[in-house]
Specification:
The chain has 13 helices and 10 strands. By secondary structure, it is α/β, with parallel strands linked by helices. Helix 1 crosses helix 2 and helix 4 crosses helix 5. This is Aldo/keto reductase. GO terms for molecular function: oxidoreductase activity.
């Protein structure tokens, strides 16, 4: 495993991290989830990402149980706040001071830790003044409940405004967590240049496009049994927009490229996002330990300019590049 600095800080994280979105507490039972976490640890992964909304807080509980007994100082634990949790009442969502201060306490209890290394705004909250949100984050840092603050799926303008307030309030905004893969590159035009200017890193999710870039989904064929595309507890909804024959056909054409590099398809996808020097870590998941091990092996792999060009030629106009997609990630109202 190799490690990269997160933003303009002295904080290092594993360049392949482990996340439990749409797996722990939903697609994967607790015993299997613990095996996946152990596989991540065995592979040298030290960075673990979750959120209170995943499986309505169950994912945090499962991750906390799985990491119990590990040396806390050797781990980097990330979680997020914004989306509705618990009974989903009128204050059980958003980035108000009330919700942030209550949410961090719940997350720490479920994760069985006194602090998280990175606390992230899961989306932008249009209903709460940004000043209120950033002041609450400043207080969370001063209370020692989070060491650093990040955001997720914020636009370049939102990141810039948040960074200025964080600087004024005396704490560091060091990361953004966007979706990013060789087929979804919407952050490249605006978010990445702004982040580079401000000293903010990307911690990217879905680098394998939720499994599509493994090549296991064949055009014109039903998805394999047990795959995310068949998961009725939520996974199938997230992956549906990627299940297009044109895209799936192009992905099949990536197989000889991966073979030439001596990589699995998943490793090729993870190595691709890590070629962007603004990416500090690629969040990978897995419903089986061997998937976790395979993903982690992408750490340190370097892709040549020729290989990157071949990938671009294969994927062509199937790649999503519209920067406006980032703004669409945050609902204009909290319960939308």
């Amino acid at each position: 495993m190799e490690f990269r600095y997160l933003g303009n800080s002295g904080f290092k994280i594993s360049e392949v991290s482990y996340g439990n979105w749409v797996t722990h507490g939903s697609q994967v039972e607790a015993d299997a989830a613990k095996l996946c976490v152990n596989a991540a640890l065995d592979a040298g992964i030290t960075t673990f990402d979750t959120a209170d909304v995943y499986a309505n807080t169950a994912a945090e509980t499962i991750l906390g149980d799985a990491l119990a007994g590990q040396r806390r100082e050797s781990l980097e634990i990330f979680t997020k706040v914004y989306n509705p949790t618990g009974p989903k009442g009128h204050n059980d969502t958003g980035l108000s001071r009330k919700h942030i201060m209550e949410a961090i306490n719940g997350s720490l209890k479920r994760l069985q830790t006194d602090y998280v290394d990175l606390y992230q705004a899961h989306r932008y909250d249009y209903e709460t003044p940004l000043e209120e949100t950033m002041q609450a984050f400043a207080d969370v840092v001063r209370q020692g409940k989070a060491l650093y603050i990040g955001v997720s799926e914020w636009t370049a303008d939102q990141i810039r405004a948040g960074h200025k307030l964080a600087t004024d309030l005396g704490f560091q905004l060091i990361s953004n967590q966007p979706q990013y893969s060789m087929v979804y590159r919407v952050i490249e035009a605006e978010v990445v240049p702004t982040s580079q200017e401000l000293g903010i890193s990307q911690v990217v999710f879905s680098p394998i496009a939720q499994g599509v870039l493994t090549g296991k989904y064949q055009p014109g064929q039903p998805p394999p049994a047990g795959s995310r595309a068949t998961d009725e507890s939520g996974g199938a909804n997230f992956i549906q927009r990627l299940m297009k024959d044109d895209l799936l056909e192009r992905v099949q054409q990536l197989k000889p490229i991966a073979s030439d590099e001596g990589l699995s398809m998943a490793q090729l996808a993870v190595a691709w996002v890590l070629t962007n020097d603004n990416v500090a870590s690629a969040i990978t998941g897995g419903s089986r330990p061997e998937q976790v091990t395979d993903n982690a092996a992408a750490a340190g792999k370097k892709l040549s300019a020729e290989t990157l060009q071949r990938i671009d030629e294969v994927l062509g106009d199937a790649v999503e590049r519209d920067p406006a997609r980032t703004a669409q990630s945050s609902p204009k109202t909290r319960l939308a």
